[in-house]
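We store amino acids, tokens; thus:
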Amino acid sequence: MIFLKKLNKFLAKITIGGIKIYQYTISPDKWLPSFRLKWRICAHEPHCSKYSINVLKRYGFRPGIFYATDRVLHCTASMHKIYNPDHYRVVFFSSAPIGVPFLTYLTNDKRFDVVWVVTQCNKPSGRWMEMCENIIKQEAKKLLKTSLIKEEVSADADGGFIATPTKLHPEKSEEGRTFTERLKEKKPDLLVVIAYGKIIPQAILDIPRIAPINIHGSILPKYRGASPIQATLLNNDKETGITIMKMDAGMDTGNMIDILRFTIPFDWTTKELIDEMKKIGPNFLNDTLWKYGKKLLGEVVQKEEKASYCGKIEKESWLIDPRNDTLQTIYSKYRAFFLRPKIYFILHGKRVIIEELQLNEPLYNSNDETPLFNDNQLNPAIQDIQLKPEWKKAMGRKEFVNGYFKQPWS
């Protein structure tokens, strides 16, 4: 393996040497007498010979030689410059755990340089309400320490590689103006946004050279808004996906670039759904960004007549009535709110949280319109249930039936 790595570097250096000889002899890129031919023979920026050197240095002989060959074979004469770099500069916006694998994959991919991470500021958390960093900021600091960040940045996290602005709009605050200027200095090709938690003004979206990109957790135009994963499960959808889209001023209304679809098993909750997106999404994002930058993927306008919206989850959403709500309604809420805040009902004036609910799918299909509890009996579709009464430990179905169904329901 070590021998192959050394051979890869050696072949890259030999090839680079040959390209440089070409540059300083007959190439319009460097040869002084041919300055009039610049951009008439090669329209790319950077010029194909310079691009070839860059990819060989960055990726090694393999796959650098394939990138270089592909560029040269598709080169056409033009007076109009075509921006086609050997890698793309990315500014990453996120504040939630789902963003961690996307940040890590982008950082590890030589096709991209993550030059800045923008996340929300420290917030009070825990029993003592101490100021804590969110997981994106923590991960970005780890990446700095492991030297995975290719951009030379300051060791001061907040001042160099990580930004935590409280205000973004350049026309409404001094902080917003400062942030905007710093963002321009990074010269990003792409902004990549996933679960950032703030509305990004159009003045920021206009900065990247190629596009601002959003990663959305549904098949757009279905479920635009803040809670697409929960909306998918609340509506008992059998299929969902990840949409990579170009951002505009609207709420998830921008043109779609690509969609990765997958089916939802009957027993999946938000946990499994998010885990699947974290597993398959990062590689899909990187390939989509690369193809889009190289103009191998175009844009598709969303059909407004098929659009639907999902807002923030209201507190009343996770309260259920186990004697009147159908099993279908309760199970869809259980799946949607499994991670947070979990569904509950009121019994004897106290909350009872449903920690776990496992159903037999065939029996569910024939009992989905009946309630969870009926005449002090559990629905026959229930295989297992874990309930946690307020101030008490979680208990199984047998303990709960013996301890609570014998008392008057109120």
The longest strand covers residues 350-359. The radius of gyration is 27 Å.
